[in-house]
Every structure is written in structure tokens, then in C-alpha cells.
Design goal:
Chains A, B: Belongs to the group II decarboxylase family. Chains A, B: Its cofactor is pyridoxal 5'-phosphate. Chains A, B: It holds the Pfam family Pyridoxal_deC. Chains A, B: Keywords: Decarboxylase, Lyase, Pyridoxal phosphate. Chains A, B: It comes from Streptomyces eurythermus. 2 copies of one chain form a homodimer. Chain A has 470 residues and is of the alpha/beta class. Chain A has 2 domains: 252 residues, Aspartate Aminotransferase, domain 2 (3-Layer(aba) Sandwich), CATH 3.40.640; 107 residues, Alpha-Beta Complex (Aspartate Aminotransferase, domain 1). Chain A is built from 16 helices and 12 strands. Chain A has a 7-stranded mixed β-sheet, with helices on both faces. Chain A has a 5-stranded mixed β-sheet with strand order 1-11-12-10-9. The first copy, chain A, starts with a helix and ends with a helix. The model of chain A has no long low-confidence stretch (mean pLDDT 97). The interface between A and B is large, with 163 and 163 residues.
Chain lengths: 470, 470
């Protein structure tokens, strides 16, 4: 295939994307597709073509076959899970990253990719007002871009297991002896990571009564009991902004419990961490002085496309001691001089694309002011939606924090019925969940095109479904 | 930021990429940058900007500050590690994927993204002539796109541990009892994955004498001895095309050993797997009838940008039993109907971008014929380079397989000196390694712009360094 056609087709693709974003912004497309399982499979041939096809035709087919079967996460009516929002700057960066096509596993495999990542992670640590020791510039800590908060917590747990074992873990594995603590409110990726790390079921610490937050005294008691039973408490995962209700564990108290016992504290701020761009939303940073690692998904609420999670560690040798590994074909003078960072030793994969260009583009194109404005805009929309819900009879706001509004109808039967009606409605996507055993709906504001008018439209849709119930 | 400027800047970026590819093809750029550690860090401000900047300026700065400090993996003089090659179709797909901005963790979070991935993984399984049971269409197996062969082997090992434990692993972890087997020639990502999975050091099975291939009899003996000692053999990782010498373990015999003992066999074909697109290079497929999982990096040798590893499993429930996990906010009718695939349960991360569009674009744009032609072209260049080396006094080809040529000078001192001279030469990148305790240079053909003229230029550069030694 010749490169000549590429520029023209890429320009066409960019135009189509702009038209697509406009159609989303105008809510001309449904959020959720209507096809039953198998719709896309049926539309695609069973075998790959033998002969090459034109890029222009493949692009056409994308809009014909694939786009109509997507859930549009950038749609103004998308309030599902947590946002995975995006921006033109991020998309442009993905184009450039792909086109340059470098592999940044080590400093020596692309020095500029590695140093850009060091700098951008430091930029973000500073913008979020994280402790200085998380910066590469501190000499001891540093940030690294992972694909997800799941992978971030996995490598943090693995570093914790290695540290807790005083070297034994590398040779003997987890031996059924190490314990990792979280709560029943912790994201599913955490117990999953603990299992993957071979440490069995994560211990669920009780919640403070009447809250969805970890009880630090119960944590201390459980760790001490485990230690007395011959087990080794290795790590605690605290959450700043849980998925179901955006609850925040009492990190300062948890940190003190961990520090007294020499146990690794990982703080998962996948969603709410971005809010710390704004000084008024920095409560979640309290107690990070005790944290060994901290992760935020820039791809959730920072206009940076997925994947882009940033994991910071206070002591990078804890990470590289655990997952660092080399081989004759990876040795090079720069690595051996120990003056450079090799990100392969900070993550699960060996190879990696140039991960930082996207975050660099987004932080520069929006500026910190622009990113703060976006967060404040989304929070104000959540305030509006919460007010609308509260003003309505037969509805209740269960929790409203940052961009998340959790609500329900006056009876569980009506909530369940509303969930079902909304599931079939293609113009709005809210995620059903369970809070304290009762069904709720979650509305997470953060899609880039959601504005006040969209919130009124969304609310009017929800209301009309509720009105039809009675 | 307004979307209006995006289309124009993206078109400009596409033009710049085409110009960049032309400059690479013409070898007008060095492969390796000359700046010492810190060059890029120094060029970047210490803080993120407060005010947003123009995309056009950021794009300019990319070429001014970042591009000159990259190792150009798409350069015709790049023969390092294994290729991570690329194509306009892949770059175009990355643009579209980023612009659509969907998150495909579950079928219900974007049905089209999931079904496209099922179909494309089936396409590739068929194109590589893999066993039919690896296809989604078989009902029992299926493929999933991972970011890397490292992540693929990690989830395969975790599935194996879960299966070997008969359910105990989920609750109790690895307990120091499970063993995973490979060889000293296996890629570093495998012992790394085994450690991360909490199973300690992977067991290094001896090699067949005079080869770099696993000895199946030694494997059987070691597994039986371990079992007698109360340990549980859980998985064997065999390699089709090792990193150092492109050696292939005797998979049929290893498979028989595994099958007799009910042990999971994962086959890592990260590099050489792509060659099976061509019927004449399908030796590596022998014995896959016994394999439980198989992985190939489409991002190595299939014109698909990084990341794109495809992992196939013969029984997808083995994978989803191990890493599947749900939560109230992830429940939905489609998942509960068990008629759909939720790829979150096939991988470490919870969230994921639409991973398959890139492979779909590449397979369609090149066609299977085009992809085969590219493999054959690279293999023929390796033949040419090997001939040139063999015809030269004072050089020796240690191994030549597929696109890889491993060579050395007549003495180790001269090889080491040549490595050092080449490290300082910016026009060619070969990777030094160690084979049987002796230093070698590896030349892996596969960069998209490497042609016969480039091979002659590369060889003349290497020769002139050698001539300067004496």
C-alpha cells in the first residue's frame, strides 16, 4: 500500500469525526444501539479478504457497520459508569503517536518518549498538588502511565508483596501468607488484582457505621489479628471516590495504621483524583503523606482518551525491585549507568507505545485552567441534576458527590421498573447499582458535550418514564 | 477548545507523518538520537501551562522537541530487538478509534466493539491456520486482544493456576505450591509474569543438547519430581521463535507431556507467530492441538501498531473463571443472558478501548496476500543479509531463522568492540545479546521501509566498522 492516499483519507476521517462529534453534541444519535447480540457479527464476513481494500472504503464501512452498534461514551446523554471522556487534543495525539510508531520499553529504545513521560507525570503530580516525593524530580519517586487503574493497583500490590517478603516473594511467591485489605465498596479491579497477584481473596475491612468508608480501627484490629495468626499484612488499598457512591476512605487514619505496621498503602483515585486539579476539591489529597502509591485515570475525567492511568510511587525502587527483569538482549550502557528510567520495570508489559504524548497534548491544549473549568462545569451539572431530582416528588437523591448523582424512586419496585424502562431507552444511559442492598441509578456527569440543556432533556426523559409507571 | 480547528490540524499532522515516513524511507534521519540522558527533560518546561495553547503550536513542538529524541522503529536501518512495525491503515484506525472514544469493557458498554473483536480474532486464527477450537465461532474458545505478550502470558498463567487448584487458588492464592515451567531462552516477560502471578521463580527446564529448545523428557521428569515433592505443576510456557535466536520448542512433544499430566500449555509465538500467515512458515503450528492458549503480537510483524497482541484460548471459561469478576454497577441483562462476550473477564484491566478496529483495518487494507507478501519480503532480506555476512571473512552467522540473523566476529573481543562501535553509530540499530555465553549481534528484518538497498547500506556500515578494528 502506498502512503500517498493516507493523508487524504486521514483528513477525511478527521472531518467525519468532527461531524460525528457535532451529531453527538446535538443528540442526533442514540446513546445506546438497538441491535440484539449478533448484529455486528452478522454484518461482518466470516473470512478476512485475500486482496487489499481501499482505506476510503474501510472508513465508509466503519460508519456503516460499526458506529451504529457502539454505545457513545462521548454523547451528552451518556451518564453511565464513570465518564471516559475525550478531546480533540487527545485524538490528535493518538494520531501522531501511532504515526511515529515507536516502542518505549526502555530509555534507550526511545529516550524522548521516556523523558516526556517523566516530565508529564511530574506536571500532573504538581497540578494535583500531590506530595512532592511522587515526582521524578524528587529523585526517589515518580509517575508512570499504565493502561488502567486495574494494572496500577496490580503492580502496586506486587511491589507491596515483594517489600513485605524481604526478598522471599520473588523466589517463593505468595505462599498463602500475605494479606491485602480493602472494603466491599472498593472497585472490582482491586480484588481481581489481588487474585491475579496470587494472594487469594482480598480482605474486606468493615465500614464505618452509616458510611461507605473503611473503618481504620477495624483495619488495625484485623491486621493485628492476621499477624498473630502468622499471616503477613502486605498492602491496604484505600479509595478516593468509590465507584458506587464516590465515597472516600479516611486516608489519613488508614495511613497512620499502615505506617505503624510498615504496610504499603495504595490510594485508588481513579475517578475522583482528577477533581484535585481544583483547589476546592482537594479533600481527597489529605493523608497522602503516608501513601506509597497513588493512581488516577486521566482517561476518566481529564479529557484524555482511554487508556491513560497515571500511577505514582513514593519509592520507585520498590516497584523496579519487584517487576524489574532484564535479559541479554535488553542490556545497554544507559540502563547500566543507572542514570535513566526504564519504564518496562514499572509495569506488567515489556513493550509499550509512547504513552505520554497524549497527556502532554491535553495538558497543553487545555491548560490547567481549561481542565479545571471542565471539572467545575461537570460538577455544576451534577448540582443541577441533583436539584431537579430533589424537587420532584417520589424521587430521592441517595448521594451526590462531585460529578456523581445517585438516586432512586420512593419504592424499590419503582426503581427497578425505572431501571428497566431506561435500559430500553436509547437517549440516556444511567448505570443501575445497589447501595445498602437497595437498587439505585447512578448518573455520572462528565461527557464533554453534556450541558445544562442536556441535563434538562435527560431529566425530562427520566421523569416521563417515572410518570408512566403510576 | 473548539472542534473546528481539529480537522485542519489533524490533516496537517497526517501530511507531516507522510513526510516523516518519506524521510525515514530515504534514511534522511538517524535511527538513534544523539542526545545524552536529560536532553528532552531539559527542553521541556517544569510546569504545565495555565492557559491553553494552540494545537498547531503543540504539533510544531512535537517535531522540534520530541521527534529528534526518538529511536525510529520504522526506519530502514532499525534491526533492533524484534520489529514493532506499522502501516498507514493501522495509523488511520488509531485516529478513528481515538475519535470515537468508546470503552469496550463489556458487550453492553459497546456491542459493536466486542463483536468486531470476536470476528477479527476469528479471522486471524483462520489466516494463521490455528486449530479451529481457538475460534469464537467454535463456541468454546476464542481470541482477545491484549496489550502485550506479557499480559497474555500473565492471564494464561493465572487461568492455569486457577484450573490446577480446582477452585482453591481464588481464595488462597498460590500458597507456594504451584510451578510454571519454561527455559532459560524464554522471553523475560514469562518469568516476570510468573512472579507477578505470585508463583515465584519459573522453573527453567534444561535444553535439548546442542539446541536452544526445551527438552520434553527433562520437562516430564521435572514435573513428576515436583509432584512427588507435593508441588503442583500448573503451566508450561513453550516458545515458537525465542527472542535471542528464534528457536522453537518441540511443541508436539511438550504438548503430549502436558496432556498426560493435565497441565496447561501456553504457546508464546509473539514474533514468529505472524509467519504462519504463509503456508511455508507454519512449522510453528505443529502440536497446537494440545495447547490451551496461544499468543502472537500482531504489533510485531503484522503491520499493526503497538499495542496489539492476540491471545487465543481453547476454553474461554478457564479464563473467565479465573479473572472474571463483577459488581452491582457492572450487572446487565446481556451479560446475565450469557449470550455475549464481556472482554473485561478475559484480561487484567476492567476498562479497555475499542481494541479491534486497528487489526480490522490492517487485515482489510493489506488483505491476507499483502500481509504474506510483507513477511516473505522481510524473510528474503534476512536471507540476503545472512549471505553477505557469510561471504565475508572474519564474520560468522550463528543463527538465521525467518527475519532474524544472529552473527558475530571471529573473536569475542572483536564482537564486543563491534557492538560498541555500532552503539555509537546512528544509522543502524542491531541488538547485542549473548548466545551460549558468547556475545552476538542480532539483526531483525521487519521495519516497513527496509529494502535490498537498505540491507546493502547496513552491511557496508557494519563492514566498515569491522575494517576499522584491525
Amino acid at each position: 500500500m502506498n502512503d500517498e492516499v493516507f493523508a487524504a483519507v486521514a483528513a477525511d476521517a478527521a472531518e467525519r469525526l468532527v461531524a460525528h462529534w457535532r451529531a453527538l453534541a446535538a443528540a442526533e444519535l442514540p446513546v445506546v444501539p438497538s441491535g440484539p447480540p449478533g448484529t455486528t457479527l452478522k454484518a461482518l464476513p466470516e473470512q478476512a479478504p485475500e486482496k487489499g481494500e481501499d482505506l476510503a472504503e474501510i472508513l465508509d464501512d466503519t460508519w456503516r457497520t460499526i458506529v451504529p452498534q457502539l454505545v457513545h461514551w462521548q454523547h451528552p446523554g451518556f451518564l453511565g459508569w464513570f465518564p471516559t471522556n475525550n478531546s480533540p487534543a487527545s485524538v490528535l495525539a493518538e494520531l501522531v503517536t501511532a504515526g511515529l510508531g515507536v516502542q518505549g520499553m526502555m530509555w534507550s529504545s526511545s529516550p524522548g518518549a521516556t523523558e516526556l513521560e517523566q516530565r508529564v507525570c511530574d506536571w500532573l503530580a504538581r497540578a494535583l498538588a500531590l506530595p512532592q516525593r511522587f515526582q521524578h524530580a524528587s529523585g526517589q519517586g515518580g509517575g508512570v502511565i499504565q493502561d488502567s487503574a486495574s494494572s496500577a493497583v496490580l503492580v502496586a500490590v506486587v511491589a507491596a508483596l515483594n517489600r513485605a517478603s524481604v526478598g522471599r516473594w520473588r523466589a517463593h511467591g505468595t505462599e498463602g501468607r500475605y494479606r491485602v485489605y480493602c472494603t466491599a465498596q472498593t472497585n472490582s479491579s482491586v480484588p481481581k488484582a489481588v487474585r491475579i497477584a496470587g494472594a487469594g481473596e482480598a480482605v474486606q475491612v468493615p465500614l464505618l457505621p452509616g458510611t461507605h468508608e473503611m473503618d481504620p480501627a477495624a483495619l488495625a484490629a484485623r491486621m493485628d489479628a492476621d499477624r498473630s495468626a502468622g499471616l503477613i499484612p502486605a498492602a491496604v488499598v484505600a479509595t478516593v471516590g468509590t465507584t458506587t457512591t464516590c465515597a472516600t476512605d479516611p486516608v489519613p487514619e488508614i495511613g497512620a495504621v499502615c505506617q505503624e505496621r510498615g504496610v504499603w498503602l495504595h490510594v485508588d483515585a481513579a475517578y475522583a483524583g482528577s477533581a484535585a486539579l481544583c483547589p476546592e476539591f482537594r479533600d481527597g489529597n489529605a493523608g497522602l503523606g503516608h501513601a506509597d502509591s497513588y493512581a488516577v485515570n486521566a482517561h476518566k475525567w481529564m479529557r484524555t482518551g482511554i487508556p491513560c492511568d497515571v500511577l505514582w510511587v513514593a519509592d520507585h525502587t520498590a516497584l523496579t525491585d519487584a517487576v524489574g527483569l532484564t535479559a541479554s538482549y535488553l542490556r545497554n550502557p544507559a540502563s547500566e549507568s543507572r542514570t535513566v528510567v526504564d519504564f518496562k520495570d514499572w509495569q506488567v508489559p515489556l513493550g509499550r507505545p509512547m504513552r505520554a504524548l497524549k497527556l502532554w497534548y491535553v495538558m497543553r491544549a487545555h491548560g490547567l485552567e481549561g481542565l479545571r473549568e471542565a471539572i467545575r462545569h461537570d460538577v455544576s451539572l451534577a448540582v443541577l441534576l441533583a436539584r431537579l431530582i430533589e424537587a420532584e416528588g417520589g424521587f430521592e437523591v441517595v448521594v451526590h458527590r462531585l460529578g456523581l448523582v445517585v438516586f432512586r424512586r420512593d419504592t424499590d419496585a419503582r426503581t427497578r421498573d425505572l431501571v428497566e424502562r431506561l435500559t430500553r431507552d436509547p437517549v440516556v444511559l444511567c448505570t443501575p447499582a445497589t447501595v445498602d442492598g437497595r437498587p439505585v441509578l447512578r448518573a455520572a456527569l462528565g461527557s464533554p458535550y453534556t450541558d445544562e440543556a442536556a441535563v434538562h432533556r435527560i431529566w425530562s426523559t427520566i421523569r416521563s418514564h417515572a410518570a408512566a409507571q403510576d
